[in-house]
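Hey, resending since the last one bounced:
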Amino acid sequence: MPGQAVAVLMVDGQLAPLAWAFAQAAPEARLGAIGVLGGAGEAQGDALARALEGQGLLTGVLIAGERNGAEQPLAIADALRHALGDLRWDAAVCLPGSAGANEGAFGLGCATAALSQGYCTLAVAEMLAAAGGPRQQLSERTLTLLDLLPEPVTVALPAGIRSPVGRELREGLRSVFDPSPRQSQLALGVDRPARIARHDWRRAPVDILGLAAAGLPAAAQMPALLEEPLLFASALAAGNVLADMLQDEESP
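The structure tokens again:
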């Protein structure tokens, strides 16, 4: 839809930095969060989303699975239509699911619902430092989501971070052309690099120091930033790219 976009989170702790970066880049835009009820009747990330709403960083919070005044529980697609249509949000961010739900399935369901309704869709990468070295890598659940999506989406990376797509493609091609037994079994998954490379990879600047000084809820406090700075950097980049996507859609 013109001027509207949907972001899909991998980790609920990325919500605060994404919302903060979005507010810095598009202070007049209306961003809300959509979660989902789990088996215990509680939505993971709901308390954090409500706290961010109280700070003015989110316009509102909807929970898929709640009735919200309707006779039937609100499905993901209905929640998106209600938020971006009736409530006139400019953008929605889907939380990663609940403790009793399949988080990956919810992320895929939310992204698929957004794509089917014509919304620009952003996958918020879960980026971590590779074990045993300084390299960065996308988490397996991020790669799996990008692999399974029925259509290309936008993926944000912090400025200065090299896209993993080149490496994925090289490894996939090597699995085809290297006849050694060690590589032969990799050929079964050769389509995956191409399906990951098809997405729109964008880089955006991040302000880690500004985030640390912003006084956000516990998920964005300095100890967590020091432990997983790339996780928060990728969320900050996503907030900036999400704001840019609104401007892209509004351009003639």
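The chain has a mean pLDDT of 78.

Sorry for the duplicate.
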